[in-house]
Amino acid sequence: MQTNVRCARRTSAWVLALALGVAPACDVPGGGDDPAEDGRRRRGVAQARWEVTSDVSGRFGDLGPRARKELRARRRELARVVREVYAAAWLRPRAERRVVRARFGRRAARAFLESRLGPPDDERVRTTRRVLELDVAADDARRAAARVAIVARVGDHARRHRVRHRATLWLERHDGRWRVIAFDAHERSIEA
Predict the structure, then answer these.
(1) What is the sign, positive or negative, of the torsion defined by CA atoms of 150, 153, 154, 159?
(2) CB-based burial of residue 117 (10 Å sphere; 0-12 exposed, 13-18 middle, 19+ buried)?
(3) What is the pLDDT of residue 145?
(4) pLDDT given at position 59
(5) Are 6 and 184 spatial neighbours (Cβ–Cβ below 8 Å)?
(6) Count of beta carbons in the 10 Å neighbourhood of residue 72
(7) How confident is the chain (192 residues) per 10-residue block, as mean pLDDT?
(8) What is the pTM of this model?
(9) Is 39 in contact with 91 (CB distance < 8 Å)?
(10) Which residues, listed in sequence order, are joined to residue 185 by a DSSP beta bridge?
(11) 6: which residues sit within 8 A by CB, 6+ positions away?
């Protein structure tokens, strides 16, 4: 099974800069793993912890104390949004439509829901690795890119297989909320 999905808005300079990782200045500490927000269990099955890292794009040199504080707050918000989306898509499929409509732009939400990423609703899922890399634009901390990698075991003992999912989400902050405006995702079965 392989799914390739592309949903994009008009390309702008910041998207290219974030996608290429232009001028990363530092790692923004803080945030990390909040088990209450990331769907750590599905039907009694323990899930892998999120490994969260972040960079600042579009700035050379050190950031001031106010800018660092602002970026730490944005990082926590971004990580929460991405974990919420992936918990709904992978671990709580009944909540997927509601969460995606709340966290995605209209076109991106439609494409994400039509892509059918993630395991089928009736499958038993155990994530073995979940990685989240955030790049936040340093100019105003209102634009970001998130790279997600998930490896999971899907199915029961009789028909178990592993799935690798990789995605890039482009996000913008409007009216105090982060929204996914575009994404590129690839998902495939891998040898057990």
Answers:
(1) positive
(2) buried
(3) 95
(4) 67
(5) yes
(6) 17
(7) 35 35 34 44 76 80 76 87 92 89 94 86 84 86 92 82 93 92 92 62
(8) 0.74
(9) yes
(10) 5, 167
(11) 184
Neighbours of 34 (CB within 10 A): 14
For residue 125, give Cα distances in angstroms to 37, 46, 153. 18, 9, 6
**CA dist., res. 35 & res. 41, Å (int):** 9
**What is the four-CA torsion angle of 96, 78, 127, 34, rounded to 10 degrees?**
-110
List, in order, residues 6 or more apart from 24 with CB less than 8 Å away.
Answer: 55, 56, 57, 135
Residue found under tokens 């829901």: 113
In this prediction, residue 61 carries a pLDDT of 63
Distance of alpha carbon 161 from the chain centroid: 23
Cα–Cα distance list, 30 to 7, 79, 139 (Å): 31, 11, 20
Token pair 């009789």 is found at 158
The Cα–Cα gap between 31 and 136 comes to 14
CA distance between the termini of the chain: 14
